[in-house]
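Sequence in, structure out.
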Amino acid sequence: ACFTILINHLLDAYENKDYKRASLPYQEQLQQLRLELPSIAVKNVTIKECAERLGISDTYFQHLYSKAFGISFQKDLIRFRIEHARFLLSSTDMTLEQIAELCGYANEVHFYRQFKQLVHMTPAKYRRQN
């Protein structure tokens, strides 16, 4: 699932590269960051850290990210975390607590809420169905 998302992002980036590159500052750095998102989503990466990496303010980073990809950085990060959790739930026998921690969640309850909001079922139910 994560691989499919990554391929779709790459295809979208390739198809729109000339248009976006001409119209949006920091486009290449933003795309590079987004390509790395699946691997950094499991860490406690912050908007501030990403903005500093580009040498811009937090607010400007969030504005550019949303404009470039049509989704906020925070929502994109959550989406990648939940995709990783779905993979772990269907391919391992780790506890839900371990999976929450591996996906960058310090709070298991927060993980459950975000998972249910995006997948429309609890992590335990998802595991049983997969």
